[in-house]
Amino acid sequence: MNPVAIIGVIIGLVVAYYGFFGNGSGIFGGSGPLANGPGRSSEIRNPEPVYRGGGGGSGGSASGGSGGERGSSQILKPGESPFKGVVRISQVERFGDRPENEYIAIRYGGTFSANPGRAIDVTGWRIATARESELIPRAFNIPEIDADEKDIFLPPGGEVIVVTGAMSYGRNFRENQCVGYFTESHQFTPFLSSSCPDDNPDRTQLLRKGFNGQCVDLIQSISSCRRPVGPLAAGIIGQACADYVSGNFNYYSCVRDFRNDKDFLKKSWRTALRRSRKLYDPRHDRVILRDQNGLLVDEFEY
After folding, report:
1. I need a labelling partner for 159 at 20 to 30 A (CA). Which of 57, 63, 76, 220 fits?
2. To 10 degrees, the CA torsion angle through 39, 45, 47, 52?
3. pLDDT at 56 over 60
4. pLDDT exceeds cutoff 50 at 62
5. Residue 124 parent element (H or E)
6. Between the CA of residue 198 and those of 29, 204, 207, what are the distances in Å?
7. Angle of helix 251-258 relative to helix 239-248, nearest 10 degrees?
């Protein structure tokens, strides 16, 4: 091969090398952005889209893509709240014709990097659509026991359910280990657990109290978070047994016995706006959550 041909081969190899491995637009490099989702290489997907909920708006993450935390180091845009990415709308249930069956769930999904574990006061935050808006109300910390409602302070992992209409149980409240007794005479949307810590007393302990067999059977037949059905026949079960049942199987005695447990108070609240009409469009809507200063916390589209 003559020298001119050799030089031509070398130049060709150099051009091919930079075309494929250099700073050009080859398959291993390129000055343009790479796609972070399926589709063509020129497609760019928003890494933090507004969550577009499916049927009922259940599950999924809101602003923040995968629902990750944003601490005090996040860069906020004008009009955005420091709680953006920390508190989110986790669900919008808007189907049905009755406002008491419609609700929004707001969840504290992260922590502040500068102050981990800090509770957030969400009372007075505004829930808005394109047409109307409402404020998150206060609630009783221990319903039926506390005299006054208090601001709702959500801890990390906490959630507040805001029903559009009126609840069958007429008070806003924080859930605790004993509120399952409320389900005996009231209906809740969404479902409220009927589990209480006084369930199924030990038979040996009952016998050691001197209770007869009829008394033991009666106590062990009482369902979770329920008072005994019908009048107590003290002549059959004994007066001591009747007094024990009356004094230990109700909401107030449950609170009395367990309110000092470290996990007595739960991280969830139930509140109602008591509206006579629905707040959310049943088909498609954009729901916005703003803090006490009117700054954007989260938005939810469906």
Report:
1. 76
2. -90
3. no
4. no
5. none
6. 66, 15, 17
7. 80
The closest of 129, 90, 102, 143 to 252, measured between CA atoms, is: 143
Q: Please, is 246 exposed, middle or buried when counting C-beta atoms within 10 Å of its C-beta (0-12, 13-18, 19+)?
A: middle
Question: Using 50, 70 and 90 to split pLDDT, how confident is the model at 228?
Answer: confident
pLDDT tens, position by position, 101-146: 999 999 998 544 445 568 999 999 999 999 999 999 999 999 999 9
Residue with tokens 């006490």: 292
In this structure, the dihedral spanned by the alpha carbons of residues 154, 160, 162 and 163, taken in order and rounded to 10 degrees, is: -150
Residue type, 169: Y
> And the tokens for 61?
């993450």
- Closest Cα partner for 272 from 121, 134, 95? 134
Phi, psi of 17 (to 5 degrees): -60, -50
Q: 3-class DSSP state for residue 99?
A: helix
The dihedrals phi and psi of 207, each to the nearest 5 degrees, come to -65, -35
What is the C-alpha to C-alpha distance for residues 239 and 245, in angstroms, rounded to an integer? Answer: 10
Pairwise CA distance, residues 296 & 76, whole Å: 10
C-beta neighbour count of 134 within 10 angstroms: 17
pTM over 0.70: yes
Provide the 3-class DSSP secondary structure of residue 42: coil
Residue 181, classed as helix, strand or coil, is helix
